[in-house]
Write a structure and sequence with these properties.
Length: 366
């Protein structure tokens, strides 16, 4: 996910002028939540309309406040449910700086979703920080381990994290073993182009660890660029040949970027992705989920049209099980100076303005 905004380098100066006023950092106390005394019970099997809000606790610490449609201050997870989301996705990092997306932080966020009756996906990056197609570094404390030892650490980390959630009565429905693993994970040992069988050992250890704690949870193998059919086919054929165990194919889809002094047309890219989903389900016999989507924060109306179309088209596909928007609660303006340490205030594909949802998220209400 870290690399999603590189395409805006040539126009970043233009959009920096559109930045909002700094947030008030004086109040470090997280905002009060809207209490749902009778939360709905999540229904497994229904179409998941989800939001990854992994930044939310860090945003609260930085003084960010969220408001419902009546202008009342509210807690972000409750606002996600009010906006129409029925599911929450949360990433997990290993010994992260500041504790963000570590075990305790994930538990705090998952507990909010659980209390609201929302379904939960856990996304293991197996990294101290972002893992994506161009960044799959092995954590420093695992750097010198051989394959077998590294696999054991994957299993232990997965079990320990999920056990914390289970001990606190958190229901987990989906678990990603790796994030955007186009090139594998835990490089160089788990780099797919070097040795797909090594990746299989690591991924299968993660799969077994998930099932040992949450036997009914669905394990997702997730890659980026869901519209690129040939690249997807290449990867999942390799995983099939290497006997990687998983239940669901996860894809990312970011269908609009700036080129030639304008936004590219998102519709052909989305259509390519829909065709690819149908091909993947038919070829590999697995359901598919869009684990990440995102659109430009500066174009809420265009974003609304794209999201509406994505939701309509995915729900027509029997074996597509859901769509998750990546960090919709942000409204940052992309900053070149922040590129190597992407934070919530430098992410340009959110769908909020001044703590409130824009029209971009209206399709999730339907």
């Amino acid at each position: 996910m870290l690399r999603k905004t590189i395409i805006f380098l040539s126009i970043s100066a233009i959009f920096l002028a559109c930045g909002k006023d700094p947030y008030d950092l004086s109040d470090k106390t997280p905002p009060p939540g809207n209490q749902n005394e009778n939360p709905s019970v999540p229904v497994k099997g229904e179409f998941a309309e989800g939001a990854d809000i992994s930044w939310v606790t860090e945003m609260e610490k930085d003084g960010v406040k969220f408001y419902d449609h009546n202008g009342n201050e509210t807690e972000c997870t409750a606002l996600m449910k009010e906006t129409g989301f029925n599911s929450i996705r949360l990433r997990v990092w290993i010994d992260p700086e500041g504790g963000w997306c570590g075990k305790e932080d994930v538990l705090a966020k998952a507990s909010r979703a659980q209390e609201l009756g929302m379904r939960i996906m856990i996304d293991f990056h197996y990294s101290h920080t972002w893992a994506d197609p161009s960044n799959q570094k092995t954590p420093a404390k695992w750097a010198d381990l051989a394959l077998g030892e590294l696999a054991s650490e994957v299993g232990n980390h997965t079990k320990e994290t999920l056990q914390v959630l289970k001990d606190n009565n958190i229901n987990i429905e989906w678990v990603q073993v790796g994030n955007e693993i186009n090139s594998g994970m835990l490089h160089p040992v788990g780099k797919i182009s070097n040795n797909a069988d090594n990746f299989a050992v690591l991924a299968n250890k993660g799969y077994d660890a998930v099932k040992s704690i949450y036997p009914d949870a669905k394990v997702i193998i997730h890659r980026s660029d869901g519209h690129k059919a040939n690249e997807c086919k290449w990867l999942f054929n390799l995983l099939k040949d290497s006997k990687v165990k998983y239940d669901i194919i996860g894809l990312s889809l970011y269908p609009s970027w700036w080129e030639n002094n304008g936004w590219c047309d998102w519709r052909p890219i989305v259509n390519d992705c829909m065709t690819n989903i149908k091909t993947l389900t038919a070829t590999f016999g697995k359901p598919v989920m869009l684990c990440e989507i995102g659109m430009p924060v500066w174009e809420p109306q265009m974003s609304k049209e794209a999201i509406e179309y994505i939701l309509q088209e995915t729900q027509k596909i029997e074996d597509c099980h859901g769509v998750f928007y990546w960090e919709p609660q942000t409204d940052g303006v992309w900053k070149p100076s922040a590129y190597n340490a992407l934070g919530w205030n430098a992410y340009d594909k959110g769908a909020f303005k001044n703590g409130r949802p824009t029209v971009a998220l209206d399709p999730f209400k339907d």
